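Q: A reviewer asked whether we had any structural model of the full assembly, not just the individual parts. We don't, so I'm hoping you can provide one. Inputs are below.
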Amino acid sequence: MTASRTSTQDDPRVDPPLYAGLTVDHSSTVDRVADELRRAVFDGELESGTPLREVALASSLGVSRPTVREALALLVTEGLAVREPHRGVSVASPDPDSVRDLCRARLVLEDAGVRHWPQAEAAARERVRTTLAAYTGAVRAGAGYRELNERHLAFHVSLVELTGSPRLVAAQESLVRELRLALAQVERIRRNAHDQADTHAELLALLEADDVPGAQAFLVRHLADAEEAILAALDLRAEEAASAGTAR
Amino acid sequence: MTASRTSTQDDPRVDPPLYAGLTVDHSSTVDRVADELRRAVFDGELESGTPLREVALASSLGVSRPTVREALALLVTEGLAVREPHRGVSVASPDPDSVRDLCRARLVLEDAGVRHWPQAEAAARERVRTTLAAYTGAVRAGAGYRELNERHLAFHVSLVELTGSPRLVAAQESLVRELRLALAQVERIRRNAHDQADTHAELLALLEADDVPGAQAFLVRHLADAEEAILAALDLRAEEAASAGTAR
DNA sequence: GAATGTCAGATTGTCGGACAATCTTACATC
DNA sequence: GATGTAAGATTGTCCGACAATCTGACATTC
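A: Here is a predicted structure for the entire assembly that you could use as a starting point for your response.
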């Protein structure tokens, strides 16, 4: 309620629609620390399970302990880290059950978005097209697997945006964040992202043809495939970790 | 991922299934402060828009400012309060757009739950029945409107539990929390909750008959009615506030 | 008279230090 | 082998302090 504590402020006092494109960074230190931690987690610099010590992070980042604490609390509510009372927070470790749940949940949200396609606002439909174009463009440009993941997940978020519901989009973004964590942990080993640009183009084609049931069925298959791929990679990663453990 | 920082811990070290029913309150001071604030908000003690000053709350609750800050951060992430940079946090004020979004979003989640009825686990189905029974029981017992709201919303959460997805349930609980806030603000004026026990019984009957499409259609109507009722009450409340403002 | 500059008060954002409570680990004891 | 004890580390909570920022009132300038 009373949403939008966002940056851009359209103040009614300033009459002319001037001063567009001017923005000031209103981010707090806590936000920047949280951003840095997220980046490190997504980039695989922080392996899953790694403890995030408050004092160490504070001195390392040049901020105070309360600031780090607040940032860690953010990560915890986002599901990127877990807090065990009196034991501190550590990077969350994706387990198969979590991945399965993530995929089931996002199927519900993305399916809702696809169903809304006919009634969706033109702007939302256009956003689906542009995010897909950005994805395929990145694929053709031979972008790194991290950027490909970004673009890929952005497309799936844009599907939920078809519902026009900010809260559903927020929920999807939360799911995608956790998924990104899982992917980051997986891709520390297999440093590649599937090229699924064609697959997604096919999905969009079905939508453009107003074939909603077809798009739904397509989405079900696509997400099932994705789930299977992630689980397989996760399994492979667990095996390697186990063999590394016994070898030691 | 690696969920459950919950209270009950099933430790594999203790062999006999003894010590059941023994629990220790592991809640932190922050949690208790947050609980108290939620209660005050839901009970209408704190009107929407009321600023939540850190120092005042700290001295009033007998805790330190950092503790209050952390609790307020929790409320903000839950959507029960909003933080404006350098201006502090205040109780969120439900506006019509938010209510519409909440209803649209929960329709997606609850509809997903209803669709899952045939494949849902027996325990989940049983939970729907028990929460409905608790609701109707409370209605017959002439419970207060607060308890009725609790039971009513619990039923709608139980519908999402049919999906078997913890994350979807968490999302629904978040939506319901915001809805509770809106209802609390509305009911400061009209201190009554609709008796919708019969309506919900009808929904369950459709499910028991495995008439999923019927249940879906029923749910759409029911949620549309609920949305309309809340919006009307909200409108009425806004009018009273306006007239009170001009009268002063 | 409207826009702008300035100041004081209030509140938050961030910091540093401090201490108690708790967990872990290792060691000692029965 | 189970239990008790001590040390070290880490978190949970608190206090005090200061800078940054917002608000509002007042003075200034054109």
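A: Points you may want to mention in the reply: The interface with chain B takes residues 1-3, 5, 26, 28, 48, 66, 69-70, 73-74, 77, 79, 82-85, 92-95, 98, 101-102, 104-105, 108-109, 112, 163-168, 171, 174-175, 178, 181-182 of chain A (CB under 8 Å). Residues 212-247 of chain A form the longest helix (36 residues).
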